[in-house]
Write a structure and sequence with these properties.
The chain is of the alpha+beta class and 109 residues long. It has a single domain (3-106), classed as Alpha-Beta Plaits (2-Layer Sandwich). The protein contains 3 helices and 6 strands. The chain has helices at 15-24, 67-77, 100-106; strands at 3-11, 31-35, 45-46, 49-50, 55-63, 86-92. The protein has a 4-stranded antiparallel β-sheet, with helices on one face. A two-stranded antiparallel ribbon has the order 3-4. Strand 3 (45-46) and strand 4 form a beta hairpin. The chain is elongated and about 55 Å long.
């Protein structure tokens, strides 16, 4: 079975909605990493303190046939049609280990 990694950088207020939407498409889980970045615009400050918006990087391992439905679900749940709400992209996966139940399910009897 072929897999892809879907990576989404999202505002923290939509992360839970995006993960639930991906699970509804058949994704079993996600890795969520709190983050902040350096976007196109300068970070705002108040009294010398950064007012950067916190974001989450959400990583999904998806079977290849689930990628498009999951991307659509992420786009909708993450409100990615609104400016500055997030970015999502897909990367190829060469090898996978640690998902034994998925591999066993694929083996012929």
């Amino acid at each position: 079975m072929k897999y892809k990694v879907i990576v989404a950088t999202l505002k923290t207020n939509v992360t839970d909605h995006v993960v639930e939407a991906a699970k509804a498409c058949g994704i079993s889980g996600a890795t969520i990493v709190p983050s902040h970045g350096t976007g196109m615009r300068e970070a705002k400050t108040f009294l010398g303190l950064s007012l950067e918006t916190q974001t989450d990087v959400v990583i999904f391992l998806a079977e290849e046939e689930l990628v498009q439905p999951v991307m659509t679900a992420i786009h909708k749940a993450g409100k990615l049609d609104e400016h500055g709400t997030g970015v999502v992209f897909v990367l190829p996966v060469e090898q996978v280990d640690g998902i034994k139940e998925e591999i066993v399910r694929q083996q012929p009897d």
